[in-house]
Amino acid sequence: MSPEKFIYAEWHKWDKAVENFHSVKFNLRGLPLVYIIRKDDAPLVIMLDDTAYNVDPENCPINTAPLTGAVFKWDNVEVHKSLKSLIQGTEAWKWSVMLALRERYDGSAEGEHMNIMKADLKELYFKRQDTFPFKKYVKRLKEAYTTLEDLGQPKFEKQKVRTLLDHIMCPDDQVKACVHTARKHYKDDFAGACTYLASEIARIFPDKDPESQQYRTSSRDTSSRGKRCVATAAPGGHQHKKRRKENGVDISGTSCYYSRDKWNNLSSPTRFKLLHDPQRVTAK
Predict the structure, then answer these.
(1) How would DSSP label each residue in the chain?
(2) Integer Cα distance of 274 and 268 in angstroms
């Protein structure tokens, strides 16, 4: 399966996807094309009794394949075509080879990326199940922790749990009681705390998750009461453009103003896209 288009906010995930994709693409000699974009020029070896043993025998052909000659030139063209299709039209276009991409996004942009992830964690809160469901809150936390780990800044389990619980700002008394229980029984178990709270919050708000069957059924019942569904049309008989929403926030207009709560409900890729949208830049 081909990787998605390049997104700066998901650089590390995208880099791995590109590696995995080229690991199952082979040249005429049966060598995975990932050798073209390998990170190590040679396999690590250890010496035992004056004999060299390869630490990574599985990847030895990839790590030792020559980056010269006719076969390399042909393979390099194929990989470059693949990368070109993934980064064309994105900010990474000017860094059009993998080495330059890694130098840019693992180097000079890494500190910026880390700051974005830390800011995301700081501003991320769970307040309402109907506008920003708990499972999406947990998903955003996990994505941020994974990125920080890739950047060499992993969080301890206790830190993860503390952030998870401290940023639950739901006023419901039952939720507060569950948070107290989680502090007591899951202080060193982030996955356990997430599972426990997800189950309890789903029980407390059975019809509040926009993605749940109960929510959809409840919404249909409410909207159909004494009403008939009629499509609205603009003058001239044309229907209005369908609005796009994410976590209950309207993102169909890129130059709109967003309150702090609404901005925090948006994912990192969406925020990045909005901030760099030409229309939004012009509107400023």
Answers:
(1) -PPPPP-GGGHHHHHHHHHHHHHT-B-TTS-BGGGGG-S-SS--EEEETTEEEES-GGGHHHHHS-S-HHHHHHHHHHHHHHHHHHHTTSGGGGS-SHHHHHHIIIIITHHHHHHHHHHHHHH--B--TTTS-HHHHHHHHHHHHHHHHHTT----HHHHHHHHHHTB----HHHHHHHHHHHHH-TT-HHHHHHHHHHHHHHH-TT--TTSHHHHHHHHHHHHTT------B-TTSPBPPPP-EETTEE-S-TT----HHHHHTS-HHHHHHHHT-HHHHHH-
(2) 10
Torsion-angle region of residue 189: left (phi > 0), alpha (psi -120 to 50) or beta?
A: beta
pLDDT single digits (tens) 98-145: 666 666 656 555 556 667 777 778 889 999 998 999 999 999 899 888
Task: Give residue 227's pLDDT.
Answer: 47
Task: Yes or no: say if 37 and 22 are a contact pair by the CB < 8 Å rule.
Answer: yes
pLDDT, tens digit (0-9, with 9 covering 90-100), for 34-87: 888 887 655 555 556 666 555 566 667 787 788 888 888 888 888 888 888 887
Q: What percent of the chain has pLDDT over 90?
A: 23
Task: Find out whether 84 and 96 touch, Cβ atoms under 8 Å.
Answer: yes
Q: Could you give the percent of the chain with pLDDT greater than 70? A: 66
pTM of the model: 0.45
117-148: b (≥16 Cβ within 10 Å) or e: beebbeebbbebbeebbbbbbbebbebbbebb
Q: What are phi and psi of 187, to 5 degrees?
A: -65, -20
Residue among 237, 34, 209 at smallest CA distance from 137: 209
Residue 184 and residue 159 in contact, taking contact as beta carbons nearer than 8 Å: no
The one-character DSSP state at 132 is S
